[in-house]
Amino acid sequence: MLPKGYVPLSLDLFADYDSYLRKSARITADVSFANLWGWAEHYGIGISFRRDLCWICQTKPELRIWGPVGDWENARWENEPELQGALRLVRVPGELKDILLARLGSRTVSEEDRDQWEYLYDRDELALLPGAKFHKKKNHVNAFHKAYGEDYRMIGDERYPNVVEDILRLQEEWCQWKDCENSPSLRAENEAIFLVIGSMDKIPGLCGGALYVGGSIGAFSVGEKIGDMMIVHFEKARSELKGGYQAINHSFANHSAQGVRWLNREQDMGELGLRQSEAVFRHTLALPELIKEVFAAADARPQRIAVSVSPCDFEGSYLPCFMCGKGTAESMGAALGVPVKHFSHQAGHIAAALWSAGRTDLMERPFLAFHVSGGTTEAVLAEPDAEKIFRVQIKAGSLDLKAGQA
Question: Which domains does the chain have, with CATH numbers?
Answer without folding.
Answer: 7-116 (3.40.630.30), 120-264 (3.40.630.30), 273-405 (no CATH)
